[in-house]
């Protein structure tokens, strides 16, 4: 244990770690699970680096008891995981598969027995393939099916789970899934991307309403949000596309006029119905924030739109220089303070929770029973100091969940990018806490940022 005289977090601040079903569970064909769009996508040659799939992943489906014990040994108070919709409804709608629910039932019980609060995310990108075959998120019906699914999961776990998050990062699901096609289902139509974004928001609203009616106590939406730095015109547009496209409807029941014009140009407005904004704008208790880095942009007249950013004509995305993670993402902890203070100012009535923050680095292989990952420790240290600075300014920040508890399947990057604070040997499935996990354990057990960086 390191002597800690650094910034102290308030009592009750929630410390935890996060994961997602497809990235860790494996057991892709077990106990009645149906295929998801990520099964189809990852098995399509050329889509995922090295042809990796989530078929086995961290085998968490079979090892969850050991993984929960590991989390307990690190002193975590909260664990954010997602439920795989295709385990619950293999065909995307209709009858519920009880064996799928049994798994999450066991997981929740073992978490509670270990004194860890389960934070459930209902949708972290693994749409049942059967729903994609009926239009996926470009179909309005998918939002209604999501509300049915949310209700079914709540009926089984609602007696023990307090905090429910509808969606993880709808921007990514819509614009990488249907715009650039870098994520499942791999479609590349800008109109479809905007339609998907709207139907995801509608799913959030319908799901939140259904969960509230069923008695859910704490409701949340997790967004990937970034401050946008650079030339004012470019920055305003990218802020609209990335942040306000989701914040304004979900938290204010509004759709910015300038965004409507962009949507109209790409998708028409036929998918937006009277009353949708009211459905989307349900009261929520927490806004989940996934923060990795800011976006940096410049005005470049004539530049074509990036396929992931329809509507970003005349904008160039730039790297500011300076240090990056293994994803090539710039390291900018001050951006987190900027983001948190802005959200607190613009949306003062919603509590904030950092539902993801962390970094991939090319860690050295384990040696002598240890993985030294000083870059990750430094990343976490600087971002937690930035979060603390926001708290000191009065931001209602309730907790911090590190991404991720385990090295895992990093979507299109396969297993090449390691975000875990715990190393996973994907041949033996052996887990080994990295130095960052031990550093984090010191932090969560004292509430004070250790001032000696483990090296
Ligand atoms: C976020 C995702 C999460 C993980 C991290 C690195 O966009 O929600 O699943 O891939 O990025």
Q: Classify the secondary structure makeup into a structural class.
A: alpha/beta
Average pLDDT level? 97
Proportion in helices: 40-55%
What integer value in Å does the Rg equal?
21 Å
- Shape annotation: globular
| Strand order in space, largest sheet | 1-2-3-4-5-7-10-11
List the helices and strands and how they pair.
Elements: E1 14-18, H1 21-24, H2 37-42, H3 60-73, E2 78-82, H4 85-88, H5 98-113, E3 117-123, H6 129-133, H7 141-157, E4 163-168, H8 170-180, H9 190-213, E5 218-224, E6 228-230, H10 232-252, H11 257-267, H12 276-280, E7 286-290, E8 295-299, E9 315-317, H13 334-346, E10 351-356, H14 374-392, E11 397-403, E12 422-424, E13 431-433, H15 435-446
Helix pairs in contact: 3-5, 7-9, 8-9, 9-10, 9-11, 13-14, 14-15
The site of beta-D-fucopyranose has 12 residues, from loops.
Which features characterize this protein?
binds beta-D-fucopyranose; 13 strands; single chain; 15 helices; eight-stranded parallel beta barrel; alpha/beta; three-stranded mixed β-sheet; 455 residues; globular
Give an account of the 3D structure.
- The protein is globular and about 60 Å long.
- Strands 1-2-3-4-5-7-10-11 form an eight-stranded parallel barrel, surrounded by six helices. The protein has a three-stranded mixed sheet with strand order 6-8-9, with helices on one face.
- With 455 residues, it is of the alpha/beta class.
- The model has no long low-confidence stretch (mean pLDDT 97).
- The protein is built from 15 helices and 13 strands.
- Helix 7 runs parallel beside helix 9.
- Beta-D-fucopyranose (FCB) binds at residues 20, 23, 168-169, 172, 224, 290, 356, 403, 410-411, 419.
